[in-house]
Design a protein that fits this description.
Number of domains of chain B: 2
Largest sheet of chain B: 7 strands, mixed
Largest sheet of chain A: 8 strands, mixed
Helix content of chain B: 10-25%
Radius of gyration of chain B: 18 Å
Largest interface: A-B, 49 and 48 residues
Oligomer: heterodimer
Bound molecules: iron/sulfur cluster, FE2/S2 (inorganic) cluster
Radius of gyration of chain A: 21 Å
Structural class of chain A: alpha/beta
Strand order of the largest sheet of chain B: 10-9-8-7-11-12-15
Shape of chain A: globular
Number of helices of chain B: 7
Strand content of chain A: 15-25%
CATH superfamily of the largest domain in chain B: Nucleotide-binding domain of ferredoxin-NADP reductase (FNR) module
Number of strands of chain B: 15
Order of helices and strands of chain A: EHEEHEEHHEEEHEHHHHEEHHH
Chain lengths: 335, 276
């Protein structure tokens, strides 16, 4: 495990307050039972939640707003400090990078935003009902894609820099607070909490097929199951909007040859329709299965990477009550 | 960090001429504000200010870089509006995008080019390119089909092509309306393939046209013995960004805008909905 440093929660909170003038701080705050990434003012610092899964909306929404003007790609005034990012959202970021930081056509808006942000990942202690990251081989604690890992333990906070950006931040922190290297008992505690969460998640999802198996099942399925489950789909696109790895958008034309980007989804009618009239996704069950094929078959073929992080948000968000995992379990049972 | 290039910003181009090709098809000559090079088969995104954007493969020679032509059928919102243009209008263009025709695979070979309807547009750019490099190919047979004689486009260019020594041009129409004059073939375009001589082992085929014609054209070529990797298809899909990001053009694991629009049949035959 990488090096962790300890500081008191009181020191961390005052450091955060002092950073407010240099950074836009976005951190998870709980409101009416929902946690979400929230802009933090001085009085909000104490409301920040730690080690708790997970923001209702994904990190994606900060990096790719639902609607944005593509006129001027200059960066925001203050760098962003994004805290409390669960491992699933961090993995999703690497999947977004495949599209938006593609070396041939890097997206300047996404690039500026990510270059200007410090990503602080967090361990999940416990899980939500639909979390299934470990079934797909992911850990419920950061293993990559963040600048700093951070865990809270009672009156202490443990931080570990991962990147150069993270190191610089920790250096800044050490100027104003009392940082010491974590002793073995703290490391043991972090590890035992991690182990406990992994075991809980494994137990919770013990009947769910793994990712590759799911891909094979989905690829081999016939239309019946998509018609059956798709019957409850109202084409609202919530599953795609809330999904940390769904990347689709539409460019809308504005005066001055300018574009606006708006979140789009293959779940909406006519998403693939061409001007001459052909529409490969001309029936609801085809649109419904398209999203699963994309995540479990096509994107893995193309990028050699899973395109579902197991965050479970699409299940939470579905107005029709469609449960992706129940569908996949049914495919497995019928196989 | 203002130096990051804004990939979503078109450059300006003036419509300098509008040419009627058929009752539903017009060509637009575009003069970009600065030189704009493309490879044959690549496409551009054409913006009508504050109205919309649509992808088109230029129909002009890729060897000309100070102006280009796009040939557009009236099919919907954006194309209806551009059909109202008279010349002098300013549009936006982004690109060129995607993978065009692989000329290097065509050199030293016989070419069989199969086109239907407005599918002649991208093919004309290829034909310009190949006629300029005719010493590098064995011969070229162009089979073109359209619904009626009135809907055959690029008539003056057909006459030009017929003068090129290594080129042979055959045309067919589905039907001849009363009062129309036509002394070439009648029937679906694939029937022209029965009339030509091809040395299949040394040939490459190119197909571009409406989906149904691409499908039956491809099947016919396979029947004639063309290997799957020697049949090049230009795919038409819904597109928004042209940059491999927005997802609209997805065809299985491919983004048609970035990996295509030109594919070999071998590359795409296992992907979903290729003829839709
Ligand atoms: S498909 Fe569902 S579970 Fe998978 S990453 Fe998207 S929202 Fe999360
Ligand atoms: S899916 Fe895993 S990593 Fe994501 S919030 Fe749930 S427990 Fe944490
Ligand atoms: S048109 Fe946007 S990904 Fe191809």
């Amino acid at each position: 495990m990488s090096d962790f440093y300890r500081l008191t929660k009181t020191d961390w909170d005052s450091a955060l307050r002092s950073f407010i003038s240099h950074y836009t701080i976005l951190a998870p705050v709980e409101e009416e039972g929902h946690i979400d990434y929230t802009p933090i003012d001085e009085e909000d610092v104490e409301r920040i939640t730690y080690n708790k899964p997970k923001p209702t909306t994904p990190l994606k929404t900060l990096l790719l707003p639902v609607k944005e003007s593509l006129a001027d790609p200059s960066s925001p005034e203050n760098p962003w400090l994004i805290m409390g990012i669960p491992a699933c959202d961090l993995h999703a970021k690497s999947l977004l990078d495949q599209f938006y930081l593609d070396p041939e056509y890097p997206d300047p808006f996404y690039k500026n935003r990510t270059e200007n942000s410090i990503f602080i990942g967090t361990d999940c202690h416990g899980h939500q009902e639909h979390c299934h990251c470990t079934s797909y081989g992911f850990k419920p604690y950061p293993t990559a894609n963040d600048d700093i890992h951070l865990v809270r333990h009672g009156t202490d906070v443990y931080v570990s820099p991962v990147t150069e950006k993270g190191e610089k931040f920790i250096e800044k922190l050490s100027g104003s607070t009392n940082l010491s290297k974590c002793d073995q008992s703290a490391i043991d505690w972090i590890e035992s909490k991690r182990k406990e969460t992994v075991e809980d998640l494994d137990e919770h999802n013990k009947n769910l097929p793994g990712y590759e198996k799911s891909g094979e099942l989905i690829n081999a399925s016939d239309e019946e199951i998509w018609k059956e489950y798709g019957d409850d789909c109202v084409s609202c696109g919530a599953c795609a909007t809330i999904c940390p790895t769904c990347t689709c958008f539409l460019l809308i034309d504005k005066p001055g040859l300018l574009k606006q980007r708006q979140v789009d989804a293959c779940q909406y009618p006519a998403f693939e329709k061409v001007a001459a009239g052909e529409d490969p996704l001309d029936a609801l069950h085809k649109r419904f299965s398209n999203r699963y094929m994309c995540k479990y078959v096509w994107r893995p073929e193309r990028f050699e990477e899973l395109a579902c992080t197991g965050c479970g948000r699409c299940i939470e968000a579905c107005i029709g009550g469609i449960n992706k995992n129940e569908l996949i379990k049914e495919l497995a049972n019928n196989a | 960090m203002k130096d990051h290039k804004n990939i979503y910003l078109p450059i300006k181009a003036e419509v300098t001429e509008v040419i009627d090709e058929s009752p539903t098809i017009k060509s637009f000559v575009l003069k970009p504000e600065h030189e704009f090079a493309f490879k044959t088969g690549q496409f551009i995104e054409l913006t009508l200010d504050n109205i919309g954007e649509a992808p088109f493969t230029p129909s002009s020679s890729p060897l000309v870089t100070d102006e280009m032509q796009v040939t557009i059928m009236k099919t919907g919102y954006v194309t209806d509006r551009i059909h109202e243009f008279k010349g002098g209008e300013i549009v936006g263009i982004r690109g060129p995008y995607g993978r065009g025709y692989p000329l290097e695979d065509m050199f030293g070979k016989e070419l069989l080019v199969l086109g239907g309807g407005c599918g002649f547009a991208p093919l004309r750019s290829l034909l310009y390119n190949l006629s300029a490099e005719q010493d590098k190919i064995e011969k070229l047979t162009f089979c073109y089909g359209s619904k009626t004689p009135g809907e055959c486009i690029f008539k003056p260019y057909i006459d030009e092509l017929r003068q090129v020594p290594k080129f042979e041009v055959l045309r067919s129409v589905d039907k001849v309306e009363e009062g129309e004059e036509w002394n070439e073939d009648v029937g679906v375009v694939t029937c022209l393939l029965d009339k030509i001589e091809v040395n299949v082992p040394n040939s490459v085929a190119v197909v571009c046209g409406p989906p149904i014609m691409m499908k039956f054209g491809t099947y016919k070529l396979l029947e004639m013995g063309f290997p799957e990797d020697k049949i090049y298809l230009s795919m038409e899909k819904n597109m928004s960004c042209g940059l491999g990001k927005c997802g609209h053009c997805m065809m299985g694991k491919y983004f048609v805008c970035k990996d295509g629009p030109v594919f070999t049949y071998e590359e795409i035959k296992d992907q979903p909905d290729i003829w839709k």
